[in-house]
Amino acid sequence: MDKLFIEGGKSLNGSVKISGAKNAALPLMAATLLAPGKHVLRNVPDLRDTRTLLKVMEELGATSERNGDVLTIDATHVNNYEASYELVRTMRASVLVLGPLVARLGRARVSRPGGCAIGDRPINLHVMGLEQLGATCIQESGYVDVKVDGRLTGNTIHFDLPSVTGTENLLMAAVLASGTTILKNAAKEPEIGNLVDMLLGMGAKIEGRDTDELIIHGVEELSPADCAIIPDRIEAGTYLIAIAATGGAGTVTNCIPEHLPALLNKLRATGLIIDEDENSISVSYPEGKGVADLQCIDIQTMPYPGYATDLQAQFMALMSLATGSAVIDETIFENRFMHVAELERMNAIIKIKGSTAVVTGKGEDGLVGAPVMATDLRASSSLVIAGLAATGKTEIRRIYHLERGYEKLVDKLTGLGAKVWKESS
Ligand code: UD1
To answer: Would you please indicate which residues are annotated as catalytic (active-site) residues?
Structure first.
């Protein structure tokens, strides 16, 4: 199993190019199942998660070819409707094939994903929505079996809470339904806007892009897509925080600054200088200041455009290095503080009460490198940030979590001046 080693205490400087968004690539890849023919997706990150979804899609009968960051998916011969536990258990987002399969084949049998390190992660909203579109859903032996005779039928669906992949699944199901579907209290993450753009390009009729009410007028068939994946806002945010945590100055390029409103405000509030350009964001310190001079700032995770839960752990690492105390409220997932015990091994001072963590910044004392364990994707990136900023050596185990969502992590960090390497054991 691979380990990641970091010799900490070196400031990161320079620029880093952001890859396509994992959380946009996955639904867009699943959406190719909606129409026979060859689809072209551009700016697709090469990650463990995108490779896992390709395996799921191969099981379903699709074929694919990658050329650099261009992925061609041929969905002509999609004829199998079952996504097996073996693959779905390794990546929860495999559930994204549910909506497109029912819409195209009238049937989908997809393994329930099960829980994961950050909580229970139910799919009740996906299932409820498909039932409201006229499908019969039977849950047995760990699978959800969804069937419809003919086409799904449009309906008005109200989400109790704005689920991201739930919205994407129902959007993909509704584009081929008969009649009009209205998704109320839908999620508004930019990745959903990316999916809407792809579906519009395929001939779908959708109103309300980027709002919490999506109106979908079903069409009988769609044509193959040619669409680019948006830049990964979570990767961009992670590098901005990493540069700041090491006292450096740098720029993330090929990103969309408007996709990170909450993070950029919070970083400014700590005392950092943030400059936004059309496709890049720079972070730096006022003259003579360093990470120990940053002020601890509270955050509360919220659905977009609020502060992203996927950037909570990374911000906590930064707050551990600042001065004062920060209250971090996690409102999206019930168990998303797995990184806390690991950060404590590096001398961070954090107290958890329910869904709130209170961080006491170490200021001048800083963090110290230690052997730590990656537990989930974003928790792992907070350990990388802490390791980069800490004095001494940090060894991170179970880095397959990181490989799920960060393309060329070692190369990108090395390009910024970090001393980081992988070793197999
Ligand atoms: C997506 C992202 C993930 C991010 C999360 C929240 C992808 C592939 N993953 O995950 O990186 O952390 O959004 O921004 O895009 N819920 C239910 N019932 C459901 C579905 C969700 O109760 O059927 C709850 C969840 O437990 C959670 C909340 O809704 O408390 C939001 O989850 P959701 O937006 O669905 O997250 P994902 O789409 O799984």
So the answer is: 116
